[in-house]
Predict the 3D structure of the following.
Amino acid sequence: MSEILVVVDHADGAVRKTTTELLTIARRLGAPSAVFIGRGYEQAKATLAAFGAQKVYVLEQPELSDYLVAPKAEALAQLCERLQPAAVLLTSSPEGKEIAGRLAIKRESGLITDAVDVVTGDDGAPVTTQSVFAGNYTVQAKVTRGCPIITVKPNAATPEPAKAQPVEEKVEVTISEAAKAARVVDRTARERTGRPELTEASIVVSGGRGVGSAENFTVIEALADALGGAVGASRAAVDAGWYPHAYQVGQTGKTVSPQLYIAAGISGAIQHRAGMQTSRTIVAVNKDPEAPIFDMADFGVVGDLHTVLPQATEEIMRRKGQ
Amino acid sequence: MKIVVCVKYVPDATADRTFNASDRTVDRTSVPGLLSELDEHAIEAALTLAEAHGANVTALTVGPSDAAAAVKKALQMGADAGVHVVDDAIHGSDAIASSLVLAKALQKLGEAEPVDLVMCGMASTDGGMSVVPAMLAERLGYAQLTFAASVEVSGDVVRIRRDAETATETIEAKLPAVVSVTDQANEPRYPSFKGIMAAKKKPVQTWSLADLGVDASAVGLGAAWSSVVSYDARPPRQKGTIVTDDGSGGEALVRFLAEQKFV
């Protein structure tokens, strides 16, 4: 079967859920091989096997972790030249897309980003689905030259375990001096919230201008915690300084596609819709009955989020207690 | 210092954007176009650096004849000069071909005096791939510093701060470099009346592919390394149940969530 490379998205060996989604998709296209770049392979090993990696290429050279995307693109280009895979799949994160863009140029191969689905086409080559123009269109596309390089958005597939015993291979690559031009001189990890990552979460509760202040975001957080979800914020709330930019949902923030999206105090401007329109179920709470968010909501409450949300949180806790 | 800002002319995101049925490319004519809003942040960052360090700022665009408006807006904001690469053969180019044309134009701009800093927005508001800055760095062999929330230059070193996935990072490189900036970086200035008048006298060069030594067969729809098979308008979401809070709105919300098995 043709070899499909899956570039593992991880933090020091902690494999992100998106990688298990990619391995699930790769199994539809051929035989998945995981490419693990960086530190912490021992920790990642079991997950990659559990989701069906037939092979794992392990690239542990320190230069691959200490610099940004350029060395990783060089490493993948060398691996692709040797293996001639049928496709390369990466997570559609900023880093994943940049690696993919550089790899596409090095390998003279077509690139598709932000796929929400990938299937095998009639000719055996992958066909992708993308959601474009703020989610108003879906587009089917394929790569017509070289090895298809595809970045896939989180939540594009439900991860399905498929136990395998991958063959491991340590790979050494040559990293040029030019690829080390930009380096990270300081990294301050954000405080862990204990909540799921925004782009991966199956439930997201977001607050907007209607929240009114930074302090009032506790109302959003409480509902998110009751549901086991992530917290998001609209651009208006971020610009007002009420919530950090890392949690912004929308065109210039994160794009999310959860099972459930709750928009509280968010009117639903196109910039925001672009970031959440593909959510499975949308719930809106807003004081303004004319807010455009209600046009796309599966369920809406016209009311003050400061009373509706705490009541909902309390009701969830009461039901859980039973 | 010589700074070039890459800007894109895009269909207005607030209008009903669509595709050309004949070749499945983005419709750039029936919807009004404008300078991609996110590129204004790149122009602002370049102008701020120029004010602090002294620099020549050139706005560069690749696109159809209408795209001259993107360069004009940059000149009105305060850029010193403009370059517009326009050629019928470019129609339908993918990000890979667009980055090739931009890179060749940047090389030509660097013939007289090397380009120290290439600045871009974080994404276009139409394609929205966010890959062109990385592709330019790849093609030019420049350092890549992307998604900057702030940019500083001291001597021959550029430093950015950015909000990465799990951490705030400071990234540093020696010039030359490609830097993309987010909408967090600044508040773009509005062109002043003086700026609008002054822009009329600023030099704008128009280049064809031949001027750049790019073969027409290397770009455009026919040369794209990926192709759109089909496109469909997403059916509008069915408007759901909207209730007015009568004091039990929160409970009604939870009943809905329970029916959908979220609780």
User: Anything to note?
Assistant: The longest strand of chain A covers residues 111-120. The CA atoms of residues 313 and 319 of chain A lie 10 Å apart. The radius of gyration of chain A is 21 Å.
